[in-house]
Specification:
It contains 21 helices and 13 strands. The protein is α/β, with parallel strands linked by helices. The protein has two domains: 275 residues, NAD(P)-binding Rossmann-like Domain (Rossmann fold, 3-Layer(aba) Sandwich); 199 residues, N-(1-d-carboxylethyl)-l-norvaline Dehydrogenase, domain 2, CATH 1.10.1040. Strands 5-2-1-6-9 form a five-stranded parallel sheet, sandwiched between helices. It is globular and about 65 Å long. The chain binds D-mannonic acid (CS2). This is Fructuronate reductase.
């Protein structure tokens, strides 16, 4: 019979299974130095863990208050657990668990807005960090500028003290902050030049309603670029049960993720900062090569796995990688088409990096859903695939596998069905507009032209006719024969 475990909280911590690492510091002596917006599994398995390591090394300035902007449940779960949760790193038969203590609070912004704004304004807080996903920034993906027509943005410009968007909440907190309290804003989402991008968006936003604040932000706040990497699937009943059996306590916020973790942070801070390098992060003057390598090779390949995997009925990344035709296709996308567009950072062996990625994708214990990665493609594809395709067409180079992946995404959006005719769940606020353009055209070439005319996604510069024809050819093949038509290697001269 399954054992009934007591719930994880500070009074049961000592009952955790022997050998599970516990916070090795007095949590009562920790002060709040970081406010994090977007308290999802990724933050809790990544930045919060680096910070937990620092607290254990004795620098108690850096406790985290986390803010949920869209979902309430996890804030309640974490509060009931005294903000404690476990992270289990798993690969095949090996697993290692630890209970993390760096979180000091979890607020659901719509219910606790004054506390959220006070936390951002607190002069002891020197870092505001973010993981709000690509769509959390109200960014027009192709231009990387603010989508000023967005209803949430318009609302927050009109009602700056009752903000709903990430930018609105940030601005309202900063407006309350003493001018002489230095702050660094650390964006940790998968966007190009994520720090520079957030800075530009926040300035564009504040210029609409509060130009004095915009000036203050421009003059005094640093926005380092960062590259973050760790595969952290959303939890499932099975992953929670797995974690619970390991730690010997019920943990409704438990995370099961891969052992790999990487964080590269640009050395650009205003004011004090956690020495995250002492916990394994790399603090360096130029993040760009790391970012391009990771966004294109990892995330770009992930998106190919997601769309082709969804079409082929493969629910998880490891299922997709167990499909030989699909695995070979993904390897071509990564190593033949994306890799040549990337300059890897000094000291990296690009082929070894790719081999390691393919191995990480095969991790059978993660159950990373292809549906989860397929979400928000209209935000992700412009970061992960389109820059490589743009650069390639400009140089007159074809990218056979990546071009097929792009056609597969369009087919996924237009048909909403797998090869076997099963309906697919598409979760992407931008998908309807693109899907209806694609469906309205009768011929593949018109469908692709109509899709590319959505310049917010595909950019304002026209794509060459030969490229459009190739994508249309693949789209026709997909419509007639499904993904099998695309997965055989293109013959190279
Ligand atoms: C994934 C990423 O969901 C997705 O779009 O590609 O979350 C990916 O797992 C992480 O960026 C890995 O660092």
């Amino acid at each position: 019979m399954e054992k009934i475990h007591s719930a994880l909280n500070r009074s049961t911590l000592a009952d955790a299974t022997a050998g599970i690492a516990l916070p090795a510091y007095d949590r009562d002596s920790v002060r709040t130095g970081i406010v994090h917006l977007g308290l999802g599994a990724f933050h809790r398995a990544h930045q919060a863990l680096y910070t937990d390591t620092l607290l254990a090394r004795g620098d108690t300035r850096w406790g985290i208050v986390g803010v949920h902007l869209r979902e309430r449940r996890m804030a309640d779960v974490l509060a009931a657990q005294d903000y404690l949760y476990s992270v289990t790193e798993r690969d095949g038969g090996t697993a290692r668990s630890r209970i993390v203590g760096s979180l000091r609070g979890a607020l659901y912004a719509p219910d606790a807005l004054p506390r959220v704004l006070d936390a951002i304004a607190d002069p002891h807080v020197a870092i505001v960090s973010l993981t709000v996903t690509e769509k959390g920034y109200n960014l027009a993906p192709a231009s990387a500028d603010l989508d000023a027509d967005d209803a949430g943005i318009r609302h927050d410009v009109a009602e700056p003290d009752a903000p709903r968007t990430t930018l609105g909440v940030l601005a309202a907190g900063l407006r309350r902050r003493p001018a002489n309290a230095p702050l660094t804003i650390v964006c940790c989402d998968n966007m190009m030049a994520n720090g520079d991008t957030l800075r530009r968006l926040l300035l564009q936003f504040t210029e609409l309603g509060d130009p004095a604040l915009a000036r203050r932000i421009a003059e005094s706040i640093a926005f380092p670029n960062t590259m973050v990497d760790r595969i952290v699937p959303a939890s499932t009943a099975a992953s929670l049960a797995d974690a619970q059996a390991r730690i010997g306590l019920r943990d409704d916020a438990a995370i099961v993720c891969e052992p790999f973790t990487q964080w590269v942070i640009e050395d650009r801070f205003s004011g004090p900062r956690p020495a995250w390098e002492d916990a394994g992060a790399l603090v360096t003057h130029d993040v760009h090569p790391y970012e391009a390598m990771k966004l294109r090779l990892l995330n770009g390949s992930h998106s190919a796995i997601a769309y082709v995997g969804q079409l082929r009925g493969r629910a998880t990344v490891s299922d997709a990688m167990a499909d030989p035709a699909l695995a070979a296709f993904v390897e071509r996308v990564m190593t033949e088409d994306l890799l040549p567009t990337v300059t890897v950072p000094a000291g990296y062996d690009a082929h070894a990096y790719c081999r390691a990625l393919l191995e990480r994708f095969r991790n059978p214990t993660l159950a990373h859903q292809t549906r989860q990665i397929a979400m928000d493609g209209t935000q992700k594809v412009p970061v992960r695939w389109l820059p490589a395709l743009r650069e390639s067409v400009a140089a007159g180079i074809e990218r056979p596998a990546l071009e097929r992946a792009l056609a597969a995404w369009l087919h996924y959006l237009a048909s909403g069905r797998s090869d076997a005719g099963e309906p697919l769940t598409i979760s992407d606020p931008g998908a309807d507009a693109l899907g209806s353009r694609l469906r309205a055209a009768s011929h593949a070439i018109e469908a692709v032209q109509a899709a590319f005319a959505q310049t917010g996604v595909f950019g304002a510069t026209p794509w060459p006719a030969a490229f459009v024809e190739r994508i249309a050819g693949h789209l026709s093949a997909l419509r007639e024969h499904g993904t099998a038509a695309l997965l055989t290697p293109a013959r190279r001269a």
